[in-house]
User: Fold this.
Amino acid sequence: MATINGRAKRFNGAAIDYVLLFAWKTGKYLGKEIPNAAGNWSFNYDNNMIVGITYVADGCEPITHGPYEFVLNK
Assistant:
């Protein structure tokens, strides 16, 4: 198992509402993470994948970026 880590904050320094992860090629939902007060979030995975990440905050347009390839260390 491995972990993807990130930090997502608004312009005022508050954490965003949530992070969505999805399979880049198919758009399949992989998970939703709620950042802590500092904006830090993490997602555990157990297979190689190429993902997109969407940051969502009330009152803001969602921001989607990717693709990111995550490979398990062997």
Q: What stands out?
A: The mean pLDDT is 92.
